[in-house]
Amino acid sequence: MTDQKVNNYTRRQFLNTSLVLASAATTVPSFLMSSSNLLAAPYADAATSSLPGVPEDRILVVIQLSGGNDGLNTLIPFGESAYYNARPQIKINESDILTLDQTQGLGLNPNMSHIHELALSNQCAILPGIGYPNPNRSHFASMDVYHAGDTNPKSQGWIGKAFDASLPKNKPLTTNQALSIISIGAIATTAVQGKRIKPIAYQNPESLRWIAKGSNKSLDKYYEQIQNSNLTTNNPTLDFIYRTSLDAQIASDRLGKAVKRTSKTKFPQTNFANQLKQVAAMIANDLPTRIYYVTLGGFDTHANQIQKQNTLLKNFSDSVNAFLKELKATGDQDRVMTLAFSEFGRRVQQNASAGTDHGAAGLMFLFGNHLASSPTGIHGTYPSLTDLEKGDLKFNRDFRSVYADLLDNWLELDSKAALGQSFKHAEVIHI
Amino acid sequence: MNTNTSLLPLADSEFKWFQARHLLWRAGFGATTDEVDRYAALGLKKAVKELVNYFTIDDGNLPSIDLNPDVMRPPSRQERMMIQKLRKEKKDKELKELRSQRKDRIGEDRDMFSELQMWWLKRMFATPRPLEERLTLLWHSHFASKQQSVRDAYLMYQQNNLFRENASGSFADLARAIIRDPAMIKFLNNNQNNKRKPNENLARELMELFTLGEGHYTEDDIREGARALTGFTFNDNDFSFNKRNHDSQTKTILGETGTHTGDDFVNLLLNNIQCSRFIAFKIYRHFVADITDLESDLTTDQQQVIGQLAATLRNNNYKISSALTVLFESQHFYDPNIVGRKVKSPIHLLATTVRSLSVNVRSDRALRYATKMMGQQPFEPPSVAGWDVGQSWINTSTLVARHNFTTAMIAGTKFGRKKHKFNNTNAYDPMPLVKNFDLSSTPSRTIVDHLANLTLGDIPANRKQPLYSFVSSQENLDRQSLIQLLLLLTTMPEYQLC
To answer: Does residue A303 belong to the interface with chain B, where contact is any CB pair within 8 Å?
Structure first.
């Protein structure tokens, strides 16, 4: 009988938070609609805020800049002659740089005008000198470190572990919990994989739908009967698979519906901008999702870097700007924080092909309305360009101090459980 | 209901059709109805023997593979000197040519790797020795290396053969061989482990993941073990011992002091009673039940069974086939709390579908895409810890991918974003599955039961209700309606289990 209870709990949770959807979606089985639990449900999921202006259903959007973004040509130390000496072919002229800090001689790549404005208005924090001890210069190995939040990475990620630790033990996941993390793209990264919490990898509504659906009406009917069967068994794994199937249908319906929303902002015509547009639509549709994960790739600029990186940085800057504008238009700007990271920075000295090779310390970006104040948008100090480690910038801030800040202070999850140890907060979040 | 934890053999009279099916799904990759019939008729002992002592079975008809061992060959000393000279003289044109050659070789390796993945999957689909491949897959997940880091398809192939050759033999042989395996040495950076600057990666995983499990050694043991492994490196495709880099001073590992080499280190681990428990635990988790990965979380029942299995390993010099024979004959293995409760891994799902229904894979690209979407690409485990088991295979995305790929194989529907084209568009013929029935006179429920027994095992009638309703809605059972019935069967939650 315990199984019966468990399932009712799950469905009640689902009903309570998905009422609008449940009445609209054709795939939701009828027993859910007629369930007497519907009226008796004592659960109230609506967030009540204890701090004015800071909602508790906070969301984190993670942007992965894959390939190793060259931090030196992003936040440019134009005050240092060492920069110009190291990069005869790929330097950026001081007159083109968007100045952030005249005294220190730091400014942004000319293609990042929007991020420049955001940084000067305290909506963007730029963190130089991000890294970890004994840096690995392989894409996969270093990305694994960033995903795991651990220099000895295993199969779970920092976000996955943080959510795992927040789940009550020995209780099946509710539908809302199953929708906690959405990763845009065919495959979700390790960062969002937990032992129990699993991301939904979302490409399009079809990717969560049975391919034979729609080919034969009578077949559809029996398929749904099977997937939505109201039986409970004495086999918890079987019940788990039933629930997952139900969750997939709910996710497919809700996400499909959400992304149909017309945006109020004009987004750039790029794949990356489109990912952010979908995320904005999902946020506006009040999904119970707390993490969205998107990717912008192509930063592995070993040759002819200038043109490639400029295009990428423009895409990054313009798309994030459109995303923040859209959040403002839908009234969600206060509950969304966005993090952008890359697996490493690049070598200080350019190579023979007008590019740069894999390096160590790099940059992180945070976007949102709850950032610690900084008149320049820059938080922390720029690593020395002359005191190098194997030709690379030395890190002065562990990336996990930013994760810890985000987990403890923004998501209100346990950073120690996620990272295996306590890290000093980067103190860049300001609630 | 209590679980029977006895490892004594099941009574022969209790080894019937569903028990034979259970054995073939767990120890192998599923089977046709005819094969289940044959195994049931063999009786328990003979059936287990045929599966476990597979060396007598001829496997000469399996697809072969011929990989070029030299594609990723490192430059010789002469070549290195030449490159240095070119650099010094700033011969950019020649250097560019060399770089482009290297790019080509990386491309060739990538192609070889795809070929290798397909070769192994097809071997699992076709082998007359299914347990051999099941064990090879177990060792691949236990001693996990990944191509993404190793970046040498030939080394991955070589390691795969090592696992296969020692699959059912002594675990001691495998453990001794793995520290000499170039792919593993490269994956865990032991080629960078020298006495002046030790690298602890291999020493750590050797204890934590390969032999003892977490909590059975100290950080000092890792440091000292790493010293023992210094100089264990490789040269092109072969192991090589670099005496100059080896630390020949005394070390203390797990309380034993001596001038231990890497081989001594492995022997110390094998002599530790915990190693037999850890390997028994891994075998149990692969073949019997989706238990926790923390030994400390095991139930008393599980501890008891694993303890007995560990003793069998110890008494038989770690011989895997001895432990498996005891396990596959045991009352415990056929307990109702064990049968039908293990989540199939994606590769197991693919192979059981192919083998039990005789469906066609149709397209290599679609197959590769499916393994990716379901979360288990051969030679690409997520980390050195290998693949997790059980419910971790199932989430909203992977479950739909599982439904979709089995549906694609059976119905020929195109699959995936790019709608992978099938090489083979011949319609699947389900009629051989029901060849012993006269469809015009057999009640349709009988056909449902027959196919459900094969695909799902022994499940209660009330769970088959939607299937009965479906067949009674059909005018008559023909090729098309049988295909539709199979689509429903293979998307049943029970189909994800075995």
So the answer is: no
Residue B483: inside a domain = yes
Q: Where are the alpha helices (DSSP H) in B169-299?
A: 171-178, 182-187, 201-205, 219-228, 262-270, 273-287
- At which of B362, B378, B411 does a domain end? B411
Q: Which residues contact B255 (CB under 8 A, 6 or more apart)?
A: none
| Beta carbons of A244 and B396 less than 8 Å apart | yes
B425 vs A: CB within 8 A: no
Q: Name B331's bridge partners.
A: none
Position B406 in a domain: yes
Chain B contact present for A190, CB below 8 A: yes
- In our burial notation (b when 16+ CB lie closer than 10 A, e otherwise), range A259-273 reads beeebebebbebebb
Contact B494 A238 (CB under 8 A): yes
Mutation for testing the B interface, residue in A183, A219, A231, A239 having most B CBs under 10 Å: A219
Given B411, B441, B463, the domain boundary residue is B411
The verdict on residue B451 lying in a domain is: yes
pLDDT tens digits along A182-238: 999 878 889 999 988 989 988 877 788 898 988 888 899 999 999 887 667 788 899
B497–A238 C-beta distance less than 8 A: yes
Tokens of A288: 């119970």
User: Is the pLDDT reported for residue A2 higher than 80?
Assistant: no
Beta strand spans in A21-123 (E): 59-65, 75-76, 98-101, 106-108
Sheet arrangement for strand A200-202: A200-202, A181-184, A291-296, A59-65, A336-342, A362-367, A124-131, A397-398
Does B482 share its domain with B440? yes
pLDDT (mean) for B149-161:
96
Chain A CA closest to residue B494:
A238
Examine residue B318 and state whether it is found in any structural domain, yes or no.
Answer: no
Q: What residue has token string 């290998």?
A: B386
List the domains of chain A with CATH numbers.
Answer: 2-32+59-419 (3.40.720)
8 A C-beta contact, residue A405 and residue A428: yes
Q: Does A225 touch chain B (CB under 8 A)?
A: yes
Q: A-chain residues within 8 Å CB-CB of B384?
A: 154
Q: Are A71 and A345 in contact (CB under 8 A)?
A: yes
| A75-76 sheet: strands from edge to edge | A75-76, A106-108, A98-101
Q: Which two tokens stand for residue B431?
A: 């009629």
Is the distance from CB of A324 to CB of A367 less than 8 angstroms?
yes
Q: pLDDT grade, residue B366 (50/70/90)?
A: confident
Q: Pick the residue of B339, B365, B396 with the most A CBs within 10 A to test the interface with A by mutation.
A: B396
Residues B352 and B387 in one domain: yes
Please determine, for residue B347, whether its predicted confidence score (pLDDT) is greater than 70.
Answer: yes
Name which of A233, A237, A343 to mutate to probe chain B: the one with the most chain B Cβ atoms within 10 A of its Cβ: A237
Q: Are A161 and A149 in contact (CB under 8 A)?
A: yes
Mean pLDDT of all residues in B309-334? 98
**How sure is the predictor about A51, in pLDDT bands with cuts at 50, 70 and 90?**
low
Rg of chain B over Cα atoms, rounded to whole angstroms, equals 25
Residue A408 DSSP symbol: I
Give me the mean pLDDT over the B156-180 stretch: 98
Q: Do B149 and A140 touch (CB under 8 A)?
A: yes
Please state, in angstroms and rounded to a whole number, the distance separating the CA atoms of residues A204 and A200: 11
**Residues found in chain B:** 498
Domain total for chain B?
A: 2
Q: What is the pLDDT of residue B412?
A: 82
Residue B369: domain span: 346-411
**Interchain proximity B373–A187, CB inside 8 Å:** yes
Compute, in degrees rounded to 10, the torsion defined by CA atoms B254, B259, B264, B265: 40
Same domain flag for B483 and B441:
yes
Indicate if B437 and B484 belong to the same structural domain: yes
